[in-house]
Amino acid sequence: MQLQTIRHGKSLKGKRVLLRIDANVPVKKGEVLEGSFGKVARAAVDIEWLCQHGAKVIILSHLGRPGGRRISAYSLAPIAKRLESLLHLPVPLSRDIVGSKAQRMAENLEDGQMIMLENLRFEKGEEENQKSFAIALSRLGELYINDAFADCHRAHASIDAITEELPSYAGPLLVQEVRLLDQIRKKPSTPFVLVLGGKKMETKIPLLQHFLPLAEVVLLGGALAHPFLFAKGFSIGSSLYDPHEVPLAKKFLKEFAHKLILPLDVGVTKSLRSRSKMRIISLADIQKNDVIVDIGTKTLDLYRSFFQKAKTIVWNGPFGYCERADFCSGTHMLAKAIATRTGKAKTIIGGGDTLPSIESAGVANQFTLLSTGGGAMLAFLSGETLPGIEALQKN
């Protein structure tokens, strides 16, 4: 898949560049909660490159779901502060997203300087993909770069409509992700092991349908495994699951029983409160009030055995209730096991809930690709057309 890129920096000097990044990261009490391999940290590398080549950078992003309203909790001020700490350069935040004040800030930039626009989703035109909003944004710059793979599955104005208004290019992060994921989507090296956790089966259905015929095995964990365990007649106690997903789980099990691998043992607790303890038990011993919060040691050993000969491993979604560190040990051990295969296999990790767990496991730099995308990664691998990618190809 070919995407037009800016191959050298000579043509950037003095140009106002609209750079779309994905800074939709956890923020708590005004502080960005991400490590050195997080989305903002990786975007900072590309921003620095643009500034070093004399571009005047106008940074675009969104945060959360403010629904077209100005809600202070979703301000990008903490993101600008985080970028300042990474770049050691001022990153002024324009409270106005479009209009004369934002225009003046953009036009007053000197070579190598930058500003950040406030949360794009404060404007209804962003999520509605309004041409008028895209035109207003485009007036701030002279060319556009999309380096937000994680948002490319959304037809929003700063991802889609804006490409009709300015010369548009793919950023290096986006290009790297698309290149590697396209290889996996079309022809993964075999044996291919798909590892799926997290909460929502509905987001994983297209991926299962696409890859079940191709994969040697699909290893299931997290809340995603619960409807499958229920479908096989196991009690899951008081664990989270959607009863409407059970018929589909039964269908998948009927067609691909030999490929869908479920946990042998699990970590359970009586409560998700901080003082509650976890115990590892077999599936047969799950009691009515138990909540599954992790995978057990036998499951880990089984899953590790499938990695030993794998040439491609794709993982999306944590295997425990990682909101608590003591319920995330299985996910950490899984991450370390997959990391040891990098080099011998292509190892692709993605998902917004997965990345913090990978960083806390200390192996974030040990994979072929640590994707910034959750929904975008799932959609792309499932064979769907991503509006952001399609828009760049048309341009």
Automatic annotation (TrEMBL):
Q: Which GO terms describe its molecular function?
A: ADP binding; ATP binding; phosphoglycerate kinase activity
Its domain of life? Bacteria
Q: Where in the cell is it found?
A: Cytoplasm
Q: Which reaction does it catalyse?
A: (2R)-3-phosphoglycerate + ATP = (2R)-3-phospho-glyceroyl phosphate + ADP
EC top class, as a word: transferase
Which residues of the sequence carry a binding annotation for substrate? H62, L63, G64, R65, R121, R154
**Pathway(s) served:** Carbohydrate degradation; glycolysis; pyruvate from D-glyceraldehyde 3-phosphate: step 2/5
State its Enzyme Commission number(s): 2.7.2.3
Q: How the protein assembles, per its UniProt entry?
A: Monomer.
Q: Please state what the protein is called.
A: Phosphoglycerate kinase
> What's the encoding gene here?
pgk
